[in-house]
Structure to design on (64 residues):
């Protein structure tokens, strides 16, 4: 995952797609790593901005 990728939030535990308005765009690699998971700042379609672990994000379209 990298800046510019379109993503959606995925997690059965947190309510999955109902939690955020998809798609979101990764606007920053926050640089926090936990194991193999990195954190990214995401701007969602409803203009909300959150910081999410990569394990909860699924790439819809990669920024090439």
């Amino acid at each position: 995952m990298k800046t510019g990728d379109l993503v959606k939030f995925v997690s059965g535990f947190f309510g999955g797609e109902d939690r955020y308005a998809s798609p979101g765009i990764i606007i920053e690699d926050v640089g926090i790593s936990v194991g193999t998971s990195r954190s990214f700042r995401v701007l969602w379609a409803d203009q909300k901005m959150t910081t999410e672990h990569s394990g909860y994000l699924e790439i819809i379209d990669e920024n090439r």
